[in-house]
Amino acid sequence: MRSPRTLEVWKLGTVNYLKSLKLQERLVSERKANRIPDTLLSLQHPPTYTLGKRRTDHNLLIPESELTKIGAELHYTQRGGDITFHGPHQAILYPIISLRSIGIGARSYVESLERSMIEFASVYGVKARAGNKCETGVWVGDRKIGAIGVRISSGITCHGLAFNIDPDLKYFEHIVPCGIADKGVTSLRRETDTLLPSEEVIHEQLVSCLAKAFSYDHIVWKQDPSLILDIQEGNK
Q1: 79 assigned binding-site residue
Q2: How far apart (Å, rounded) are the C-alpha atoms in residues 227 and 225?
Q3: DSSP assignment, residue 46?
Q4: For 149-160, what is each residue's pLDDT tens digit?
Q5: Is residue 88 part of a domain?
Q6: According to a count of CB atoms within 10 Å of the terminal CB, is the N or C end of the chain lower?
Q7: Its pTM surpasses 0.85
Q8: Number of domains into which the chain is organized
Q9: How many CB atoms neighbour CB 211 within 10 A?
């Protein structure tokens, strides 16, 4: 009989992308050393485009010099996947968890991330599905509602998923989202007739779906982001 498993969740609000990247790097190191439990960062970013390690710059459809005019940043990362957009009114979850302790591999991990978003969408009557071959993320028909891009190092995960609650979809017009040219992008707001609660409640619901997908028994909510972000500031 396995012992109960706990997921520690930090509710961070809006965080600059580079700051979240450095925070993830520190937490991955701490998780590898077993100094922290499985941890999840729940947050949003200011308007940001990110490219994965394949460096598919051609899928950015405007010059980098134009990004400041639309209030966006561009960052290169070591995650998998292609170019994507992060911004306000998008729920972002970054799991820092040990796949070895759970006993699953990379494919099962990604499938569990997909399953958590599919279950969450169903709460609002939205029928979502995993992507077809060569289509990552979660879709409603041929419109993408949730993106996945992960990195796994020594069995510890970082980066994660982004679910569109009600972002400004015009930002997606400047990229080929996730490198798939003939598909659209959508949001929970567009796909449901249900009145949406506050985004804090939505984030909590998505976290709960993720915890269920990975069979966590308990969620420990961390409400004060300064406790973890201030540590990060001190480590600059």
Answers
A1: yes
A2: 5
A3: S
A4: 999 999 999 999
A5: yes
A6: N
A7: yes
A8: 1
A9: 20
